[in-house]
Amino acid sequence: MDRQRFEKQIRFVVEIDKLKQILRQTITMDASRRENSAEHCWHLAMMAILLLEYAENKEIDLLRTLKMVLVHDLVEIDAGDTYCYDSEGAQHQTERERMAADRVFNLLPEDQANHLRALWDEFEAQKTPEAQFAVALDRLQPLLNNYHTQGKVWQQNGIHSHQVYKRMLPIKEGSSILWKYASELIEDALKKKMLPS
Amino acid sequence: MDRQRFEKQIRFVVEIDKLKQILRQTITMDASRRENSAEHCWHLAMMAILLLEYAENKEIDLLRTLKMVLVHDLVEIDAGDTYCYDSEGAQHQTERERMAADRVFNLLPEDQANHLRALWDEFEAQKTPEAQFAVALDRLQPLLNNYHTQGKVWQQNGIHSHQVYKRMLPIKEGSSILWKYASELIEDALKKKMLPS
Hints:
The structure is a homodimer.
Chain A: H1 3-15, E1 23-27, E2 34-36, H2 37-51, H3 62-71, H4 76-79, H5 87-104, H6 110-125, H7 129-147, H8 152-156, H9 161-168, H10 171-174, H11 176-191
Antiparallel strand pairs in A: 1-2
Helix pairs in contact in A: 2-3, 2-7, 3-6, 3-7, 6-7, 7-11, 9-11
């Protein structure tokens, strides 16, 4: 057993506990508080297992998809969460997150650092069927939370339906069925005045 | 597309958001608050990916292990979290959790309900190499959190080292290397007076 390797791995396990403190704009479905990025990743992993049959490419690798949703927010330990409708924050988001990825993943032994970095890069690039499905889930989950909390966060932030539509668009690449469903939710949110047009 | 099936799946995705409100005794590593079961499951999933090479049985199926740690606490939505040193709560825990499993998993279409129930049963039985490794991680993670918060929760609850040893014992079945490490942590916690003997 390589003790140095083991200690790097344990230090990483300790480091990533910090993701539990990264708060997203999305609130939990009981509307009691903001969701954190660790529990958000768990929710996406459960959705990947449950909604796999709706992936556009039926042959996708569930294991890689799960790994991708589990690690996709680790960079927020350094870079924080950027609200998806914050155009100012988005300007520097890529650079901040790339620096974070350089530090966070490299706490691990090299082979594992490369493995997790490759998963993160794959998710960000949205090119493979697994990444496209993972991104679809990452967009659908906050839509569900917003819908089931009567659009409270949308209203607080003055978000309009065209912005939500634009944000949800990548769902289409990952799953046409989930995209259809997301559109129905947005239309219903509009009808119920959770969201201004 | 079977709309009824889809709606059951989405209702389940909405239902399990409740796991984010189930608080454990364990606190996060910054000692700021109690950890919830959803983020705990995410942490275990990350540990499964990172510490897989230490599984006693090197041939274990990572995908099934990940699914198991992701779903193992879902019954707490109904049954709540039972503190591992609460012998009174433990008496009725099995029955409460079985009833919870009957309700929660059966919100899903039958094939998926059976699949998740089988994973939960497998975890609980601690017989397969995957379940033994998953259980080992489920014991090690709170030990790490307790150690890195100077045993605050142990002291609050008057827990002694022999209780922690007993609780950690199943780690041995899942990984002799992680068991050795867990023993070192307990010994060090004793030495540093985080934990009375």
